[in-house]
Specification:
The complex is a heterodimer of chains A (about 600) and B (about 575). Chain A is of the alpha/beta class and about 600 residues long. Chain A is about 65% helix and about 10% strand. Chain A is elongated. The chains are: A alpha/beta (about 600), B alpha/beta (about 575).
Chain lengths: ~600, ~575
Amino acid sequence: MKPKNGLHWIIKYHLKFPLKTFYTYFTAILEVVLFTFPIRISARVINQVIEGGGFTIEIRQDIFFLLGLAFIQAIIFFSISFINEILAHRITTDMTQEFFETLQYRSLTYHDKQDVGNIMAIATGDTRTINIALSPATRFVFSVISVWVLNLINAFRVHWSLGIIGVVICILFYYSSIIYAKKLAPYASNTRQQFSNVSQMTSSSLEGIREIKGFRSELWAKRRFIKTSNALQDAEIREGKKAAWFYPHLFVTLYTASVIALSLFFASQSNPVLPTVNLEQIMVISGYILMLTGICGEFDWAMSFIVRAKAAADRLYNIIYDSDLGEFQEGEKSLDTTSTDLEFRNVSFKYSPHEPFVLKDISFKIRENQTVAIVGGPGSGKSTLTKLIQRLYLPTEGEILIGNTSITDFTNQSLRKAISTVEQDIFLFNLPVKDNIRFGKPEASDKMVIDAAKLAEAHEFIMEMPEQYDTLIGERGVRLSGGQAQRISIARALLINPKILIMDDAAAALDAKTEIKIQKAITTILKTRTTIITTHRLAIISKADKVIILDKGKIVGMGSHEELIRRNHFYRRLFEQHYELPSLEAAHEELLEQGGRIF
Amino acid sequence: MLWRYVKPYNSMFNKLVILVLVNVSFGVIAPILFKQAMELVEQSETVAIRYILPFLIAYFIIRVSEWFSRVLQRYFSYQFNSRITNSIRKHVFGDILSNKLDFFHKTESGRLTSTITNDVQELYDTGDRFVYIATNLIRLFVILGILFYFSRWLTFASLLFLPLVFIIVFIMRKYTRRVSRKWRKNFAIVNQNFSESMRSIQICKAFNQEQKNISRMRELNEETYRSSVKRGFAIFIIGPINDFFRHILTIIILVVGTMEYNNRSNFSVSAFFLFIFLLDYYYYPILALARNVSSFQSAFAILDRILKITEDQNIKEEDSAGFRASSFKGEIEFKGVTFSYIPDSPVIKNISFKLQPGQRIALVGHTGSGKTTIASLLLRFYDVDTGEILLDGKNIQSYDLDNLRKKIGLVNQRVLLIQGTIRDNLILGNPNATDEDIWQALDAVQAREFIESIGLDFEVSDDGKNLSAGQRQMVSYARVLLTNPEIIVADEATSAVDLYTESKIQDATDILLEGRSSIVIAHRLTTILKSDKIIVIKDGEIVQQGTHNELSKIFGPYQEMYQLYFQTQSAKYLEVIKTS
């Protein structure tokens, strides 16, 4: 059953652990009662002392009782706080996991709309807030309620008037605390926001230090930082001003002062109209009140966490139970045995219903083991086209077939195993080089990894790294150049030995020499699988069996390079603009005259 | 060192101290009044209203005043704390900026960011705690004084016990910190893994890795859970121990108090009760102190760390007012320059070349050959080990650093954009540029069409990922043009852009370099062909230099590279285009 909101969702989590939940919150109330024993015993002992007789049997018994209580209370206190903490961590760990799993299975359409920073703030900050709210804030609130109840009972015992005062003040205290916490919450979140601004500003300035120094803009960077830093200070002060005026605590002060004053007053008079109060009672009353003052001093803290946790739980809940427009059912067929003829049949696609079409009425066929180059300017839809083949998105109209079967009929597993990509924005993981290469095939042996790396011209530079194939990559490890990262991603794609290979601008960051080496190395590989390459490089385009020219999402030309260069207007324009280089031509001819080796 | 930051807020500090004292006094007077009133009640059955009433009213007023003084105290301590941490943060950031580039290479930027943000924030928290503990300690001494006045023996008896508690809590605290650190580390790993999975969702889906990601996440999550259980144990074992000893303390007071009462006539029941009543006032400050000693230690460690990165003169960029030239002719000469990042492994060896004003030099060579280092040396990001670099016949070290860098424009290979708007990025070197200037510069490099569609107020995301390669490149050109430099050092981008953009970039490069002395780290043939001189670098040494015509005829590294460029940049197909 789907929970109604964040709070309901948290309660449902608690119900999975009924015993722990019950123990925690019930004992939180009970524990407070135990705390009253030392107060009452102390009062009784002092009372007995006044009556004289030195160390009476009763006093000794009381003291031993207190000693026993000390042990019992320590054990109970420990068990409850420890179990509470375990419960809270169990729940938030499961929440994090549920959140993660939900997101993993969300479609790319869904992810495209999400801001990773926001997701991370929820995954880390919000779960942590909930954690603290569950342990100890909620337990703490239970304890506070319990202390209030004990105090009220005590007040009623002395006189109903005290009791009434107590009830009124108690209600005021709770009510104002909640209002207060809600009011304070936006201030606190503003401070957090400003703090993260400072963090971002700092890290971006440090990453751009070369620029800042090169342009001699230290002063400018400093001024910018000062502005952000001051904003944080102002937010902190604003929050502090609000937090300092925790007026609910004034109610507690009023209550304690009036109860103590009144009971002393009663005790000082022997008027029959007034209730009689003896010294022992005063001692008990004041002891209780001390407990109340102490525990309520922390109440604002607990309330603020609970208010924040509620908002945090709603955020988590909203994402977990959000609908996913891009969700689709995977098919049941396996791609293992079909041929890899690839066909686009009138495929149109847009990323979301309200956006314009990115691809419009695309139809083409590629035979098994052919290589196709897709050419086009930025925003022509090249990358999108390759993503449709992998079924990362479903076509809005039309269908894509592999070996005459619609790709929607295949299982995710078999489809994606058969296709591998070298993507444009390479993502490598904070893992050793070798694990990055065998990312798609974790069971691959070291030898296979090395072979793939050699094919991708990556072996040489990997061997020069401090720990070769065990070198950690990324933030915590070595930083790779664009070309190196690209080569590793090529190795990663080759290792899978896919039936269909997609290279989305895979050579962009490579220098010419490396590119040629890789080209040569994978020529044979390319001959045995269907390959789709998007690129701007003529050398690659010219080797393709077929070139498809995309412009604004439409196919504006298809054929071999030689054909296209002669006949296709779009194609010619693409290259003309770039290669109108008279000096190059001159140099070329001159070189020919000298008989230099060119080709 | 801390005093330097406190000093400007001296008056606020004084206010804070006074408020703490006021708060403590109110907090102590109230129980004593209470005791006096109790004594009145104790002595007789009935007390005339006129005797008891003033006590009660005074008690009431003092309690409310205590509350009010606490509000004020918090009010000021928040201000005081955030002002001080803010000024520390600003100082640290400002100081770090004047460090040598070398420093930034050796220090992880994440670590530095964390020092400036999290560490400074920890100082804030420590400041908060410090006020709290100072209040408690002052109160402790006042109260001990009062208690001492009422009963010497009872005070001693309760004090004897406290060092033991202090030690236990202190030792436990150390253990807690250890398990907490382990937990925090695991928590950070979970977060990192989470964020990595989010950023890599596309590739994970393409490689069928969802299930594996989930099970890996579960493993990490459970590991964190286990360490949080340990941490929970360490944290929550302290509370019960405290409570246990609190009971024992109650027992001690009861026993010794009873003896005192029986032996001494002037020890009143009210005084006896006062000991019980004030128990928390002297028990808890001791605990709080024990718990927080380590956080004060870590605050000092942080201050120490800050000192190291801000005050060390060895890592400061020397910025003494050197010679300031109003303009440069742009004659550059490298004379036997050798440089190494790590002692004894030079990356630049004995480099010598000369550039006449207005000339363009192309540095050619493979990745890691030392081309970028040569450019960095000219900008004095690093100082040469031996040899010298002359600018207009003068050693560059004799120029004012500000003067030097302002006159040399820098185009990096990887265009680094800083977080902010397009405008922020464009005016990096010339903060006073107006929008008109900006558009003028953009027009000059023919980049209007790239920027116009998004506008100058477009927020550049982290690392400029929401801009196209062409846009990034154009921004970097326009911003150099805005500083109107006399010399340009450019590291050409290798990344492929579409051909139209590429031709635009080529044009922009020409405009930028026109009439200026320039050193270009070239990756494109066209750029090389337009240079006056080509210097081929290999393993930090000049292996060939000359013009294209000269070098392409000689068998050697340049010829080899030239052929490779030719092949990939496809002159062959150019022929086809031209002839068809």
